[in-house]
Design a protein that fits this description.
By secondary structure, the chain is mainly alpha-helical. It has a domain of 111 residues. It contains 9 helices and no strands. The longest helix has 56 residues. It is rod-shaped and about 115 Å long. It starts with a helix and ends with a helix.
Length: 244
């Protein structure tokens, strides 16, 4: 039986409405996919930065406070990545690759200080620049987490203080170490330059107290030893000016 004209009109209207609903549904899904991909890209970028910073800090820092905080953030990000893209896995392998805590809880103060000095005594300017850049990246990330309300104000303050001290130790200990290496190679002029750089870090940075005084005394003793090798006052003055 042929459809009446009103029935045909109603059918066409129903088809149009259905088509519009289908288009709207597809557009909604497409927008959701775009948002999901955007979130995945942002999380993946931060995941990569977190992994690099955690690994780098463990190489130069005995304290686990900062790396523990960053690892918690990394775990949370990996969980969100897995929720948005289950095919990516849950990140357990990546977390295992980063290893456990870098420091032992039963380490005494002298052993801990020796370990920190050793880890922050780098052998080249490139390593120093890389380490201090990594520390700055860690602080920037912690500040971002604070803005996102993922860390507290107290955590931000303590982390910033610790990273500032770590950066100073890298500058001081690395220059002292490079100065000692230069002396071992017979390059007194380069050694004086590194001792002067270490002294500058100590005088202008946060590394004060007994540790700072001890390092300043060591630097002064080493500089005097170098100058004693150049006994003439005129020779000493010329040597110091060339090393400046």
């Amino acid at each position: 039986m042929p459809l009446s004209y009103p029935a045909i009109v109603l059918l066409l209207i129903a088809l149009m409405v259905g088509s519009l609903l289908l288009v709207h549904l597809l557009q909604g899904r497409q927008e959701q996919d775009v948002i999901r991909l955007y979130r995945l890209a942002a999380l993946d970028k931060r995941r990569s930065a977190l992994s690099k910073i955690i690994k780098g800090l463990k190489a130069i820092d005995d304290s686990t406070d900062v790396t523990r905080l960053l690892t918690q953030t990394l775990k949370h990000d990996l969980q969100r990545i897995h929720q948005l893209d289950p095919a990516r896995g849950n990140g357990e392998q990546e977390l295992r690759a980063l290893g456990g805590d870098a420091a032992k809880a039963d380490k005494n103060a002298d052993a801990a200080k020796s370990s920190v000095d050793r880890k922050t005594s780098l052998s080249s300017e490139r390593e120093v620049l890389s380490a201090r850049s990594l520390i700055n990246d860690a602080l920037t990330l912690i500040r971002h987490l604070y803005q996102m309300r993922q860390v507290t104000g107290d955590q931000l303050e303590s982390t910033a203080r610790h990273l500032g001290m770590l950066s100073a130790r890298v500058g001081v200990n690395s220059n002292m170490h490079m100065a000692d290496l230069a002396m071992a190679q017979g390059d007194a002029r380069r050694a004086l330059g590194h001792y002067r750089a270490a002294e500058s870090y100590l005088l202008s940075g946060p590394l004060k107290g007994a540790e700072g005084e001890q390092k300043l005394q060591y630097i002064q003793q080493r500089r005097e030893q170098i100058l004693q090798q150049h006994t003439g006052s005129d020779e000493q003055e010329g040597f110091m000016s060339r090393a400046a």
